[in-house]
Specification:
266 residues; Nucleotidyltransferase, domain 5; five-stranded mixed sheet; 2 domains; binds adenosine-5'-triphosphate; binds magnesium ion; 9 helices
Length: 266
């Protein structure tokens, strides 16, 4: 059996082949010892690990494991996933919305990190919890999908009252920028969570679209577990990316890119 593991800041992603088929699993980082036990109990296996917590995982393994730099593993994994989907292009950007967000340009079969932002999936969960007390990721995204950002976010057209704005009036001028002191009836959890996802999605896509200027392509491949069962984040990122002239792509199993790349390297 060959196993690729991406141990990130929040989640451990595992890709492995069994009877010729690729399987994917994910675990919270708190279960790193259980993942190591699972690997240690496998008979006749090769393992390659990547991600920020790969050192911790390697220290828990009984057998030597190959290690791979996260960005190289992700690049390779994205390539494999896009090839499978028949959508591989010569050049594209990869935006990995993990705990934090990292942006890469892939061209001439090389990846270069263009930058990133600390606004990512960790922000989504952390800010959501601080604002609403909700802790579970699935509950956050479910509540958010039923909320509206209209009372919290200030749009360009709200500022340009009775005047044609020089840019699209639909763009957000200020996330959480409405006159919140004036909202007399309480803001709901659904509204707050939708606005947090709006903030994360717009930040991630704005930075990505700007980074695209340094890359030959305007196709942006969005990956990372922050998009799992999160149609609202996908929707915000899609509309903002298109509005700013780039093309968003969300490959199936994109969150397993690092694990897939590590597995493929074996
Ligand atoms: P990094 O790459 O920054 O080290 P990571 O690889 O652990 O972190 P991902 O697994 O890509 O990051 O994404 C983590 C994010 O995915 C979380 O911050 C959260 O927003 C979201 N997420 C999706 N499913 C879950 C889950 N079951 N539990 C917690 N967070 C989840
Ligand atoms: Mg990661």
């Amino acid at each position: 059996m060959i196993v690729g593991i991406d141990a990130g800041g929040t989640l451990i992603k595992v890709a492995y082949t069994k009877k010729g088929e690729v399987h994917f699993e994910k675990y919270p980082i708190a279960e790193i010892e259980q993942v190591a036990d699972w690997v240690n109990n496998l008979v006749d296996c090769k393992v390659c690990v990547t991600g920020g917590r790969s050192g911790v995982l390697v220290s828990l393994l009984d057998q030597p494991a190959q290690e791979m730099v996260e960005f190289e593993a992700t690049h390779l994994g994205v390539q494999v996933l896009l090839e499978k989907a028949g959508t591989l292009e010569d050049a594209y950007l990869v935006t990995n919305v993990g705990t934090g967000t990292s942006i890469h340009c892939i061209q001439d079969n090389m990846q270069e990190r263009l930058g990133g932002t600390g606004v990512g999936g960790g922000t989504l969960v952390g800010l959501s919890h601080l604002l609403t007390g909700v802790t579970r990721y699935d509950e956050i995204v479910e509540l958010a999908s039923r909320g509206s950002r209209d009372r919290l976010d200030l749009k360009v057209k709200d500022i340009y009252e009775d005047k044609e704005p020089p840019i699209s009036g639909e763009l957000t001028a200020s996330n959480f920028g409405q006159n919140l002191f004036a909202i007399s009836d309480g803001v709901t959890k659904e509204e707050l969570l939708a606005a947090v996802i709006g903030l994360v999605g717009e930040t991630v896509s704005t930075v990505s679209v700007q980074a695209a200027r340094q890359c030959r392509s305007s196709t942006i491949v969005y990956i990372g577990s922050s998009f799992i069962d999160n149609p609202l984040l996908k929707e915000v990122v899609t509309s903002y990316t298109i509005l700013r002239g780039s093309i968003p792509v969300f490959p199936d199993n994109g969150e397993f890119s690092g694990a897939m790349g590590a597995m493929t390297a074996l």
